[in-house]
Amino acid sequence: MAGSRIAAAIDDNGLVLPQDGQIAVFRPKSENDYSALPQNRLIACQSFKPEYDWFVRSTIATQATYDGPFSACLVDLTRSKDESLGLIAQAFDQVAAGGLIIVDGAKKSGADSVLNLCKKLLTVAGTVSKSHGKLFWMIRPPDISGTLIGWHEKLAPRQQAHGFIAGPGMFSPAKIDMGSQLLAGCFAGQLSGVVADLGAGWGFLSAQIMQQPNVTKIDLFEAEHAALAAARRNVTDPRAQFFWEDVATMTFADRYDHVVCNPPFHQSRAADPDLGRAFVKSAAGALKPRGNLWLVANRQLPYEAVLSECFSRVEVLEENRMFKAFLAQRPKDYTRNTKRPVRS
Do residues 103 and 185 make contact, with C-beta atoms less than 8 angstroms apart? Predict the structure, then answer.
């Protein structure tokens, strides 16, 4: 695990932490152990709301951006290579000359590939291979101008071939997800009143909802802060409001005529159907008594049972070899409180 690699680097391999200043962890993971780092100077930089909330509860200083300055940065590699390289470039920007940049990740997260790229451009001071992963560190030189050409841009959302703004670390940034396209075709011409998009991502479904003239308001709920920022650029209609929230655990004050949802089915590499089930239950709690849930999911995921548990009527609208689109109507009675989400 990451904690054992950090401890081994400090104890046996010559990694020397700065004696003062904040030490940032970019994209920290709740399952990782950071106890080898000085807790009173540690700051978790995490833009994914479930992980952000976990670090807040753990009493570690937490922020949603990657802005310093810091005396050292630890970059936890993500599933997106572009995002990881962008975070490394950001780390070099946020520490002064002589500052420490540490990179850590599992081999399945591409740690070896990222290490090789860093070696071509920078001086790697040390490495540790342990627990199916790799940790390495670098000292920021006085001048890095021209060194990481293109790496900063990898992190930034930009206009994709499909015409929308999207970027690394978001769901399906380079192409419009086929499941979302299927669902958009199902609800076209069917929406009115107040609508919520749960897990809105960079805003494709919300943009389609905004084409419905009878929709009076739409609330976009998204856990990834960067994706929500991209959605703001893609959905500029004044009827739209944006909320940085963990849909799987939140409750709603407002009630909606329709909820539209293409729920995530994993947060790590492994599929987690419970995450989608939590979205269904959240949707049931967000709807008016005669409200409708429009949902699409990979056809192999077992959502029929939870849909029937939460709604009085469930209909398969359309399916193909990859996806199923559902219409679930009339949510059954669920306990609802009056917590209002904080507008982002």
Answer: no
CATH superfamily for 2-155 is: Vaccinia Virus protein VP39 (3.40.50.150)
DSSP conformation letters of 24-43: EEES--TTS--TTS-GGGEE
Q: How far is CA 327 from the centre of its chain?
A: 26
Predicted TM-score of the model (pTM)? 0.89
Which CATH architecture describes the domain 158-331? 3-Layer(aba) Sandwich (3.40)
Q: What is the largest CA-CA distance in the chain?
A: 65
% of the chain exceeding 90 in pLDDT: 78
Domains 2-155 and 158-331 share a fold: yes
Measure the CA–CA gap between 182 and 169, rounded to whole angstroms: 23
Q: What is the pLDDT, as a whole number, of residue 334?
A: 53
pLDDT at residue 268 in the model: 45
Segment 286-309 mean pLDDT: 93
* Structure-token pair, residue 196: 């919520």
Express each pLDDT in 21-76 by its tens digit. 999 999 999 999 999 999 999 999 999 999 999 999 998 999 999 999 999 999 99
* Domain positions in the chain: 2-155, 158-331
- Among 260, 203, 262, CA closest to 232: 203
Cα–Cα distance measured from residue 58 to residue 50, given in angstroms and rounded to the nearest whole number: 13
What dihedral angle (degrees, nearest 10) is formed by the CA atoms of 245, 247, 248, 253? 100
Cα dihedral value 191, 193, 199, 202, nearest 10: 80
DSSP H helices, the chain, are 2-12, 49-57, 81-94, 111-121, 151-155, 178-187, 204-209, 225-234, 273-286, 304-310
